[in-house]
Structure formats: C-alpha cells, structure tokens
C-alpha cells in the first residue's frame, strides 16, 4: 500500500491540475463564477494537503492549526461553487465555513489535536454531503452527470465520517501523530478518486451547459425570449406538409408611432409585455416566435379554426386591456391577428402565407381585431 503522506501529495498534484482546468474554463466564461469558486477552493486544499503530506510525520499544533482551517476554507469554497452551479446564493456556504474553521481551530489551539482532527473530518463530511445535495437537487439538468457527481460527493463524505467515527470510538482526544487506520487510508484514496471524478464531471457539465446556452442564444430572440425566425423555420420546414395545426400571425398596431413618440426603450417594453401575454395564454406545446420587428407567430397543434380563433381573440383582448400608451391619453397599443388552419397535405409555408394574408385583412379592416382565413383543402 502507498503510505498516507504519498497519497496526500498525489491528491495535491491532482488538485493543482484541476485548479488550472477550472481557472481556464472561467477565463473563457467569466459569468460562470462557480468555476472560480471551485478553483479557489481546490487551490486552498492543494496547499493544505501539500503541507500535510510533507510534514514528515510531525504532528505539532502548527502542523494542524494552519492546514486544517485552510482545508475547511477550501471545502467551503467548493460548496459555494456547488450552490452557484445550482443557481443558489453562495453566502450560506461561506458562513458554514467560518463556523467549521472556528470549531476546529479552537480545540487545536488548546492542544486537543484528536478533537480538532475529529471536528475536521465531521465538518468535511457535512460540507461534502451538502455539495452532493446541491447536485442531487439539480439532477434534472443533465441527469446522469449530476447524479454521478452527487454520488461521488456522498461517497467522499462517508469516508470523512468514517474517519471521525474511528477517532470517537478510540477516544483519541490528543494525538501524537497523524491518525493511522483503515478509515484514513480509504479516505485518502476516496479523496484522490473523488477529486478526479468530480473535476472531470464538473468540467463536462460546464461544457454541456455552455453548449446548451449557445444553442438557446442562437435560437432565441434576445429581447423577448421567444424563438427567432431561424429557429421557427428549423422546427417547421417551409415545404413540409402539416396537418392539424393552426397558425396565428400577430402584428402590433402603429408600433412605429410608439418608438417615435415614446422612444425605443418603451417600444421594447411593449414587445416584452406582448411576449409575456403569449406565454401566459398559450400552452407549453404551442410554439411562439418573433419573426422580426413587431410581428409574432404562434403555432397551435391540435386546434381547429373555432378553438384557435378563441385563443387569438383572448390574446387580443388581454393585450388591449393592458392599455399601454402610444402617445396621447386616448391612444393605447393594440394588436391585430390573422389565423389559418392547415388543410390536407398543405405545406407550412402555405398555411403561414394564408395567416399573413388574413393579418393584412385585419389591418385593412381597422386593426385591433382577429381575421380568420377561409378554410382551404389541398389535395
């Protein structure tokens, strides 16, 4: 078996490589602050483990009073990184780290090295378990990798708890040397394997999240958060036959006047409010897209003309009731809509074109209304 000191040095080298990888990842994505928290935490662990591995069997108070708090600070930063990855505030992790350091350093300063070592293992186990809990809670986000990361954290936590239990059972309140038992050996191996595994999975999760974000940015309208034109036609090919769906085209009335009189910031707010209404009035199975400017499109599968017409009218009324100003006290923002339902073997571009023609008629007829295209059967 490799001696414990060599394992600690091995863990330190593995951790140093992971720090570099995480820091490079953060340099390429500065908004992903969980990466820099993780790098800072593992960096603190690297220095602490290197000091513990190179102490040459010495176990004086200073061999513990500096590395142990540094280790716990590292664990706390790793926990704060886990919370940030799961979109949770990091502050509780930092508070927990302060409490852990204080309750570990106090017995060490009093010469109770065994009590301090037990406290270190208990707190390390608690913090690692909490890290695992964060990934378990977020397991719907890349499920296999998140569950695997949570499992590794739990195993590492269990190995720390085992070390603490052995010390408590043996009643070693003062130690004259590093603990030497099977639990310590297993803990060192688990820390080495766990650090490597957690690092690899975390980087994989980071790249998966970045790829998903880039896909979302490429397919989403930056202002309103709905699909953009390119994404809509990627989802519904123009020449593809469609059956059993309704297409509603929306156009905000006199939108140029809103921008000219009240400014583009107000115009943007109007567009976002209308997108919010679409999201609230439509189903999750429906598709919403902004085709450009003030023009939106909604695709409603499984709706006939009557039901789709009721939906379009409900959206029109909901926007009208907001009474968003255009310029004067009596002028408010309204929306016109054109609706078409797909005929037999009709292509998506054909249905979209008929809905657009219906929208044009709604605008010609005085705006702020829904016009339904006549049914068309395509052989």
Number of domains: 2
The CATH topology of the largest domain turns out to be Rhopdopsin 7-helix transmembrane proteins
What is the tally of helical segments? 13
Distance between the termini: 78 Å
Mean pLDDT: 87
> Could you give me the name of the CATH homologous superfamily of the largest domain?
Rhodopsin 7-helix transmembrane proteins
Kindly name the structural category: alpha/beta
List segments where confidence is low: pLDDT < 50 over at least 5 consecutive residues.
none
Q: What is the structure about, briefly put?
A:
By secondary structure, the protein is an alpha/beta fold. The protein has 2 domains: 4-219, Up-down Bundle (Rhopdopsin 7-helix transmembrane proteins); 227-372, 2-Layer Sandwich (Alpha-Beta Plaits), CATH 3.30.70.
Structure characterization notes:
- The structure is a single chain.
- Helices cover 65% and strands 10% of the residues.
- It is α/β, with parallel strands linked by helices and 379 residues long.
- The chain folds into two domains: 4-219, Rhopdopsin 7-helix transmembrane proteins (Up-down Bundle); 227-372, Reverse transcriptase/Diguanylate cyclase domain (Alpha-Beta Plaits, 2-Layer Sandwich).
- β4 and β5 form a beta hairpin.
- α2 (33-53) packs antiparallel against α4 (67-85) and α10 (255-262) crosses α11 (264-281).
- The radius of gyration is 31 Å and the shape is elongated.
């Amino acid at each position: 078996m490799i001696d414990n000191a060599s394992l600690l040095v091995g863990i330190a080298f593995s951790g140093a490589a992971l720090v570099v990888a995480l820091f490079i990842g953060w340099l390429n994505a500065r908004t992903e602050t969980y990466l820099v928290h993780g790098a800072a935490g593992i960096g603190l662990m690297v220095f602490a483990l290197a000091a513990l591995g190179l102490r040459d069997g010495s176990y004086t108070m200073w061999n513990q009073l500096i590395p142990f708090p540094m280790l716990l600070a590292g664990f706390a930063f790793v926990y704060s990184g886990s919370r940030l990855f799961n979109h949770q505030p990091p502050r509780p992790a930092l508070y927990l780290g302060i409490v852990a350091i204080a309750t570990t350093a106090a017995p060490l300063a009093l010469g109770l090295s065994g009590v301090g070592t037990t406290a270190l293992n208990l707190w390390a186990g608690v913090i690692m378990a909490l890290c695992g809990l964060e990934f378990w809670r977020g397991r719907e986000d890349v499920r296999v990798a998140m569950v695997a990361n949570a499992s590794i954290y739990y195993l590492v936590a269990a190995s720390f708890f085992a070390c603490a239990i052995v010390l408590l059972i043996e009643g070693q309140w003062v130690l004259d040397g590093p603990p030497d038992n099977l639990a310590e050996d297993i803990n060192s191996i688990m820390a080495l394997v766990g650090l490597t595994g957690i690092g690899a999975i975390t980087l994989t999760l980071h790249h998966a999240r970045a790829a998903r974000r880039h896909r979302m940015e490429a397919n989403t309208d930056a202002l309103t958060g709905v699909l953009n034109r390119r994404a809509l036609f990627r989802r519904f090919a123009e020449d593809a036959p469609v059956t059993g769906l309704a297409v509603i085209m929306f156009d905000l009335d006199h939108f140029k006047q809103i921008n000219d009189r009240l400014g583009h910031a107000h115009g943007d707010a109007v567009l976002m409010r209308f997108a919010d209404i679409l999201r609230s009035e439509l189903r999750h199975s429906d598709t919403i897209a902004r085709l450009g400017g003030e023009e939106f499109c909604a695709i409603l599968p499984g709706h006939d003309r009557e039901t789709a017409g009721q939906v379009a009218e409900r959206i029109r009324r909901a926007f009208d009731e907001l009474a968003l100003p255009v310029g004067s006290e009596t002028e408010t923002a309204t929306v016109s809509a054109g609706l078409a339902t797909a005929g037999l073997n009709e292509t998506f571009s054909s249905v979209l074109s008929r809905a657009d023609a219906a929208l044009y008629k709604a605008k010609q007829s005085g705006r702020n209304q829904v016009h339904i295209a006549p049914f068309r059967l395509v052989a």
